[in-house]
Amino acid sequence: MRIVQKFGGTSLADAEKIRAAAKKSIALAKEGWQVVTVVSAMGSSTDDMLERAKKVCREPSLREMDAYLAAAEQMSATWMAMAIEDLGHPAISLTGYQAGILTDSIHGNARIQGLNNDRVQRELDKGKVVVVAGFQGISPEGNITTLGRGGSDTTAVALAAFLGARLCRIYTDVDGVYDKDPRKYPDAVKLPVLGYDRMLIMAREGAQVLHDRSVEMGKLYDVPIQVLSAFRPGPGSFVTDRQLLQVDCPQF
Q1: In angstroms, rounded to a whole number, what is the distance separating the alpha carbons of residues 252 and 245?
Q2: DSSP category for residue 194
Q3: How many CB atoms sit inside 10 A of residue 24's CB?
Q4: Residue pLDDT, tens place only, 143-177
Q5: Mean pLDDT, range 233-239, rounded to an integer
C-alpha cells in the first residue's frame, strides 16, 4: 500500500517541526505503508531567495530563476531525509528530476506531464521513505522547471496518481477545509468531506488550502486528498467524489 504526504513551509519552519514531520512518515512506514513524503521550502525561504536574487540581477531569466528557486525545496528534502534517518528509519531525498517528474517547458508555471522513470518505486521497494522536493520537475529539454505558487500540492497529488497511491495527505497549518477562512471568520464551518468540483471553485475563488491544479489532478485520477493539520490531531477534511468508506485511510 502506498501513501503520499506533503508538508508545507509552515510545517517545516524549524528543526523541531521537521523532526515532528519525520516521525509521521516513520509511523506510517512502521504500519506497513510505502511512504512518499513531498516537501515545500522551509518557512519564507522562497520569498527570501527572491529578494536576494533582485540584488544580483534586475531581470533574471525564467530558466535561471527556476534552477535557483528549486534549491529551496531540495534543501527541505535533504533535511527531512536526514531527520528520518537520524530517527532510525532508512530514507532518501530526490529532486524533481531524480524522481522523474516530467513537465512541459513553461518556466515558472510548468504543468506536470508524467513520470519518466521508476526511481521512486525502486527506492520504496528497498524499504525507504522517499522524500521528494516539491514544486519542481524537468522539461523535455532537460531544464529544471517550477510549478508556480502552491506547486508542491500538485507534486504530491501527481505522484499519488502516477504511483497508484491509496491516499494523498496534505499537511498544513489549518485542520481542514472550511466554508470560509477560519482565521478571519469565527463562524467558519469545517467541511468533513467535499467533492473535487466544490474544492476547485473554492480554490479559484481564493481559498489557499489547496492549489487548484492539485485538485484538477486529483479529480482526473480519482486520488482522495486529505487536508489536515501538521500540529493538531484530527482527520481534517477529505476531498473526493467517493463515499468516505471507500477511502483507505491510516490513522492520522
Answers
A1: 16
A2: E
A3: 18
A4: 999 999 889 999 999 999 999 999 999 999 889 99
A5: 92
Query: Which among 80, 22, 71 has a CA at the least distance from the CA of 45?
Result: 71
C-alpha cell at 18: 521537521
The answer to whether the beta carbons of residues 221 and 164 sit under 8 Å apart is no
Total count of residues recorded for the chain: 252
| Sign of the alpha-carbon torsion through 207, 100, 42, 146 | negative
Residue 46 lies in domain:
2-246
pTM (2 d.p.): 0.94
Q: Smallest Cα–Cα separation from 60: which of 70, 50, 45?
A: 50
Cβ 95 vs Cβ 78: under 8 Å: no
Residue for cell digits 473535487? Answer: 196
In a domain, 251, yes or no: no
Asked if residue 252 belongs to a domain, the reply is no
Nearest CA to 119 among 99, 134, 149?
A: 99
